[in-house]
Write a structure and sequence with these properties.
Helix content is 55%, strand content 7%. It is an alpha+beta fold.
């Protein structure tokens, strides 16, 4: 239960500062650097215990040295290790192992926003290591710190995989653009499915581009050989595709003969890079899926249009669903709530501004994508069952706002947050409105509810198809446990109906 007006800030630090005397607390601000970290130890009253900062190298001996200095101060002042708060600004990647060593020693780690560290330091014009430590320590004492997420934990791993996948998507797009420019010179029209009959950047087109590719080579290639290569690439009708490709090559202008050798070699290297990026993306997506299956966030995939990537992105950015704030604050953090200005007395009208720029742009992208897909993907249960309304709630809301020429993605994203938060907190799938209130006059009957859950479970299974969850312990695989519960419920209902 929250006991102060700072519900999203460190409750451990708030409890210590509230319940313990200043003499029983130690604050350890740390300014991270690649080679040597700068730290200081101060009491709960804000007084530095050493005249000069502590220099700790960014390695195992440096971490052990800082821990030893902290323990020495704890013994001298009679402060238990659990009353030591170690804080710093957003930890860079090179400091993660250093922080892991401090956490393993039983020290509580805090994160201070750089803006707060700058605001609370004694001099805002100059910047030195000592001033930086001063600002971090004062921010912690003013309860402007946050619990540092456990490094290497489930949600930290999922967020790392999600951010890495996003960067790989950008790199994949850049690689495809480079390949497209090269192919338009070596074989114009090849990457147009209407002209070549092959899916652009599909397995067949990548296979042909990976070795000695040009319009001249396709002309000279025997039809039987081309059919065999297309068949190996799983083309549905290889003979027809080969004939169409040969016809395109026959009427397409060829590049200069002396430049073909270099162009085909360069293209082969680009195709190899693209395949490597796609393999890395698939690995990161699979890691997202393995992490998501261990959290109640997997239930978001029961919403039509939301797959593993979208659900994983939302859960990775928001973190542990048990700590999600109210939907309004979640929407504000995602940058989908416009600024609002009001001044001049209570009777003055407020002004609605634009969407904020200082928001989590990764999360904003996931929210708007999820809102679009959920609002344009129907649920098959409405076609096979007599459920109220034309479609599920998110779909109806999106279409209604779209017809009114409103901001359908923003409003649907806000509704999605309210529904999704309730789903993961209550550990339930996406349900129709008449299934949420058993006392309502049009409440969904138990038989209809079981049928609906069966259809939803089948849809969820299709969305998770292709991800490798092998080796995941059964007690941690919440997705598998949920499927078993739905299967047991269906079998129980079938036995009861038979009896």
């Amino acid at each position: 239960m929250q006991r102060d007006i700072f519900p999203d800030r460190s409750q451990v630090a708030a409890e210590l500062l509230r319940s313990q005397p200043s003499s029983a607390i130690l604050i350890v601000p740390v300014d991270f650097a690649k080679r040597e970290h700068v730290a200081q130890i101060c009491s709960g009253t804000g007084e530095f215990l050493f005249q000069r900062p502590i220099i700790a190298r960014n390695d195992a001996p440096g971490a052990a040295y800082l821990i030893e200095r902290i323990e020495a101060c704890c013994r001298r002042l009679g402060v238990p290790r659990s009353h030591v708060l170690v804080g710093g600004e957003d930890a860079p990647s090179y400091a993660r192992n250093f922080l892991t060593a401090l956490a393993a020693a039983g020290l509580h780690l805090l994160r201070v926003q750089p803006a707060d560290a700058k605001r609370y330091r004694t001099n805002t014009r100059a910047t030195t290591d000592k001033l930086a430590l001063n600002g971090i320590a004062q921010a912690i004492l003013c309860r402007r710190s946050y619990d540092l997420e456990r490094l290497g934990g489930l949600y930290s791993t999922m967020k790392g995989a999600e951010r890495t996948r996003r960067r790989l998507v950008w790199q994949e797009t850049a690689a495809k653009n480079r390949i497209h420019r090269q192919v338009e010179w070596l074989f114009p029209g090849f990457l147009s499915q209407a002209q070549s009959g092959l899916l652009p950047f599909g397995s067949a087109s990548l296979e042909l581009m990976s070795e000695d590719f040009s319009v001249v080579h396709i002309r000279r290639l025997r039809t039987e050989t081309l059919v065999r290569r297309l068949k190996q690439a799983s083309v549905q009708h290889p003979a027809e595709a080969a004939e169409k490709l040969k016809a395109l090559a026959g009427k397409t202008l060829a590049p200069p003969a002396e430049a073909i050798a270099y162009g085909s070699r360069s293209l082969a290297l680009q195709v190899g890079l693209l395949r490597g990026l796609q393999g890395a993306m698939k690995a990161e997506e699979n890691e997202m899926a393995r992490c998501l299956a261990q959290t109640p966030g997997f239930l978001l995939t029961s919403i039509p249009g939301i797959g593993v990537v979208l659900a994983g992105g939302l859960v990775a950015e928001y973190g542990d669903p048990d700590h999600w704030p109210d939907p309004d604050r979640m929407a504000s953090y995602g940058g989908i709530v416009p600024r609002h200005y009001q001044t001049g007395g209570p009777d003055a009208q407020g002004i609605t501004g634009s969407l904020p720029l200082d928001c989590n742009h990764h999360l904003k992208d996931w929210l708007l994508q999820a809102a679009f897909h959920a609002g344009t993907t129907p649920h098959e249960a409405w076609d096979r069952m007599a459920l109220p309304g034309d479609q599920h709630r998110l779909y109806e809301h999106y279409q209604r706002v779209e017809l009114q020429e409103g901001h359908s993605r923003l409003s649907t994203a806000k509704l999605l947050l309210r529904i999704g938060r309730a789903m993961v907190r209550d550990r339930r799938a996406y349900l129709p409105a008449n299934a949420l209130d058993p006392q309502a006059q049009d409440a969904l009957s138990p038989e209809a509810l079981v049928q609906y859950l069966g259809l939803t479970a089948a849809a969820v299974a299709r969305r998770w198809r292709g991800y490798d969850l092998s080796g995941l312990p059964e007690e941690l695989n919440l997705l598998q446990q949920w499927h078993k519960e739905i299967e047991a419920l269906t079998q129980f209902h079938a036995r009861g109906t038979t009896l």
